Amino acid sequence: MEDSSEINIRIPGKTQSYPITVERGIIAQVGPRLDVVLPGATRRVLAVSNAKVFALYGRAVMASLDRSRFTASSWLMGDGERFKSWRTLEQAITAFGGAGLERPDAVIALGGGVVGDLTGLAAELYLRGIALVQIPTTLLAQIDSSVGGKTGINIPAGKNLVGTFHHPVTVLIDPDTLRTLPPRELTAGWCEAVKQAAVADRRLFLRTQRLLESGSDGLEAEDLARIIADQCALKAKIVAGDARESWDRTDSRSRRILNFGHTVGHALETATSYRRFRHGEAVGVGMLVAGEIAKNIGILPTDELELLRSAILLAGRLPRTRDLDPADILALVKRDKKSVGGSLKWILLERVGRARIVDGREIPPAAVRAALRTVLYESN
Prior knowledge:
Layout: E1 4-10, E2 17-23, H1 30-37, E3 44-50, H2 51-67, E4 71-77, H3 86-98, E5 106-111, H4 113-125, E6 131-136, H5 139-145, E7 153-155, E8 158-162, E9 170-173, H6 183-200, H7 202-213, H8 224-241, H9 262-271, H10 279-296, H11 302-315, H12 326-333, E10 345-351, E11 354-359, H13 365-378
Helix pairs in contact: 3-4, 5-6, 5-8, 6-7, 6-10, 6-11, 7-8, 9-10, 9-12, 10-11, 10-13, 12-13
């Protein structure tokens, strides 16, 4: 297995790009890495994390920053999706001010997608934008939320309804951090890996499936780091072609295809108050529903649906859904933030590796209800 891979992601409409580096042990080399990408005036850095992650990796990160003569401090937020809130956002921005951060300074998001999303939004708002460094420690964050510049918090009306785009100056990915993840976090990450490949890269999908077949969690696979790098490269390519997820694009390379499984997934998270599902787990269920819808309306062959389903099952056991009311989930789906003119745009598959954006008005409501019943009641 290669020890290091680097991808450069271009920010569309601008001359800048930033590196995504996948390397074992890089978490202990944060200081020297930031010396390369941050301006010389940057000497003050604040790391945002949560107690669990900081206990595992905070000492190594802070020691590396200290050796590189940064003035480093930390601030810890709560652990869990429910902490992506206005209150936590205000607390983070207050912490930035308390640390004395100025325009040339930087913040580090050390943790999973919750930490990354909230820290990114706070970094965009504080002083109208300061530098952000992403150090994702979960598989889902490594291949998805740390790449592409999306930030956000949740509000009662739904998930990620408040946010902006704020690209990091660099993303540092250490595959060794995955060894400390609980099984459910790995399941969430592998569901996201299945999703990304399913919408745009059949070969990567099959490679990811083979990796999952090679072991119970994929961590011992020889090409783990390469798969992570290739997943990042795939997302970077899609993002480069549609940086701000244009609402009027319906082609198969729109950034919106990355929302495959998210329509129902976000509804499941909202319906259960962000306490039952990890994000990737909810996306896993959402993909199964989207697959059923595509089969029901005749655009996805049954054998392709079975291929998708087998990969999702390899990712790990998903939370129970039999107690959820399909009507409640459907009501939340209709409030999805991706609706345009009151019509929801569904991301469906024509085959594994090729997505299609379908206007909700073209899908019979009965096909959606049937898919929800099949997956919620029969899949677990």
